[in-house]
Amino acid sequence: MRSLSRVVRAGRRPRSSSVRQVPPRRLHTSRISFHESEKSEKASGCGQIIEPVGADKKLNIVGLSREELEQEFKIFQVPTYRVDQVWQWLYQKGCQSFQQMPNISKDLKEKLDSHFVINWGTTTADTISADGTRKLLINFDGSEVESVYIPETSRGTLCISSQVGCTFACTFCHTGTQGLQRNLRPSELVSQLLTAKKLLFDFGNQEGRAISNLVFMGQGEPFYNYRNLKKALNIITDPKGLAMSKRKITVSTSGVVPNIEKLGQDFPGMGLAISLHAPDDKLRSEIVTANRQWPLAELINACKNYPSLSPNNRITFEYVMLKGVNDSVTQAKQLAALVKGFPSLINLIPFNPWPGSQYESSSTQTIVAFAQAIEDAGVAVTVRWPRGRDILAACGQLKTETIKKRETAASST
Questions:
Q1: Closest CA to 145 of 170, 95, 181
Q2: pLDDT value of position 391
Q3: Which end of the chain is more exposed for a tag (fewer CB within 10 A), N or C?
Q4: Which entry of 95, 173, 303, 395 is annotated as an active-site residue?
């Protein structure tokens, strides 16, 4: 058998949840007072996070396309060349107020203030795990979602949500017990990234971005909010805006087949991840409800024809390890056979427990044996060891905080 480090090359398993692992300093995962961070914020041209004022009476310009912003400015006789200036201050500098934009005249600032607002929502909780993982709870007009920042030595990944709740009810996922409340707007998708960048002092960072990678793997099904997702991705990848590379972004889906091709066509080179979790239709239909509409044959065929598929842009198949459910060596061989023949990577995820869940995680020994069987079959495999378990920020543990509190209060009465 090959060494454990070869099989689990996605990262080392934390030795103990009681030991606080200090992340690289450049990732700024610990809280820093404004006095200490003032120099960093001044370098970016904007100050602290500002709570939205009068957002319900004015148009929020966050999430508008450049064309939409230009049209809105025309209505109020604002010169169109100002779009580029505001766009830069908004997305490159992280400004939340027109008053923070020094190359705009006082009169124009007042005009913009009277008609528009820059609203990122309100960060109501900011929790840091013992391993450095950071979970943000953001309130958008009364609806709350969670975003998770995961620091690593060579990169920092932000996991953002696409819906309040989720369209599907995968049995192993905490979000699935919440039901679907609504889709997130483009402004709310983009604001999760803006908020994290502000808290991590990542605007105007000349030493390398704290957030180098972005994954749509939080709460919700991104492909059931595709119109808003597309609009947000256009802003996030705009070279004059947030300027994130499409190759540093991955969108995850439970298997909404029609939008797989759309993503590859709209954003060539963007990463695709499939929440697979079972090697056959019978089991997958039980634990991943999307499979009842798009069975494995349709899903795998769509993956093979993904427009951005290449040896350098493999499709990732996420597979949560459930004790006694989907973790046998036979199932590992079935899984390998299912995705073999095109560029793919299987990412094994130990199940992360949450209150009321019916599952247990497979043992480390079982996971390693499962991974070894896949590797022996000639398919690339990694293991994603848990991060942020102690603050319910790990994969499958997200659920809106206010709903969890209501459930806790109800159970105690």
A1: 181
A2: 56
A3: C
A4: 395
Catalytic, 146? Answer yes
Q: Mean pLDDT throughout 244-251? A: 96
Q: Single out the residue of 103, 107, 94 nearest to residue 62, CA to CA.
A: 94
| Cβ atoms 126, 180 nearer than 8 A | no
Cα gap 316→326, rounded to integer Å: 18
Check whether 50 has a pLDDT greater than 90: no
Of the listed 144, 146, 188, 221, which one is catalytic? Answer: 146
Q: What is the pTM of this model?
A: 0.83
Q: What is the pLDDT of residues 125-136, one digit of tens each?
A: 999 988 889 999
CA distance 15 to 17: 7
